[in-house]
């Protein structure tokens, strides 16, 4: 894993201690499947590279640059009981961290943040990685809590919150995506294998276009996810459509660089899309439904196409071959820098440490 570059810390700057917390059932690391876990990993590495202290509460096996406060190994099945147990363990680890360390800020990334955060005088920042409707109203009214979105498109769909800060766009490690690989004729789809990601539609589009499709990603042990994979994905696999399973960063980069295009047939309003940004950084066009932030990430005719249905997606698979790969890379360099994202969060952390923010929201 390459290091994250950071500007040298000025002598008068204080060393910060930030406690990062993700979803109770999701390991954190640069090869994590979930976008929230990848962003938390990038911030952990960015803090350490800048000379700060990073503490991360996450499941055992997470890959952390700072200090991992491990909760537990993942259960074989993600049931409601398993989730409640994981949240209870996470709650204990957070309380222990706050008692043991002089924490300047708690930074949460998980959907379940309100289930495991104990009462504390330490200010809390919650990065909202999912659409507004995924969060209980009571969680968004938590006292002494600030929020930020990961794209302007996401924030536009959120109700007004007293602690909402300006959005900080996600970014990807552009320098790690510069590798070149021989181009192949296949289309690619990557991500969590679950109904809302629409992988069955990618399979239909690729079959209609008569272009091979490779699918990479994890099937998490939720009943609904396994059922979707078994019923909607497996029957469509064959000589022209293969499932690769989870990919680490090196394999993901190789497939993204070699692909004709990346298909993103999401059925929900995406708040961001790291894999779309990664594909564009590799010079690979993205063919996507106009779902949420994908409308801002994909520049039609430059870095891909936005399509309305499976038929248009099949047509765009062929059209993608005519797009300029270097224009894709240039668009990524201009818009998707992870260094810029980390710098914005570190500047925000400094403001929290100085209490240089508007008066904290108290009770809803």
Supply database-style keywords.
364 residues, alpha/beta, Rossmann fold, 2 domains, six-stranded parallel β-sheet, 14% strand
Short description:
By secondary structure, the protein is α/β, with parallel strands linked by helices.
Describe it for me?
The protein has two domains: 17-171 and 337-354, 3-Layer(aba) Sandwich (Rossmann fold), CATH 3.40.50; 175-335, Glycogen Phosphorylase B (Rossmann fold). It has twelve helices and twelve strands. Strand 1 (17-21), helix 1 and strand 2 (53-58) form a beta-alpha-beta unit. Helix 1 crosses helix 12 (338-354) and helix 8 (274-281) packs across helix 11. It has a six-stranded parallel β-sheet with strand order 3-2-1-4-5-6, sandwiched between helices. It has a six-stranded parallel β-sheet with strand order 9-8-7-10-11-12, sandwiched between helices. The chain has 364 residues and is of the alpha/beta class. The protein is globular, with a radius of gyration of 20 Å.
